[in-house]
Amino acid sequence: MLDEKVIAIDTTTRSISFYAYLCIKRFFDALISLIGCIFLLPIILVVKICNICTGDFNSIFYKQKRIGKDGKFIYILKFRSMVPNADEILKELLKDKKYREEWELNQKFEHDPRITKMGKILRKTSLDEAPQFINVLKGDMSLIGPRPLIEGELDAHNGNHEIYEAMRPGITGWWACNGRSSITYKKRLQLEYYYIQNASILLDIKCIFKTVAAVFKRNGAK
Question: I need a labelling partner for 10 at 20 to 30 A (CA). Which of 84, 90, 96, 152 fits?
Answer without folding.
Answer: 152
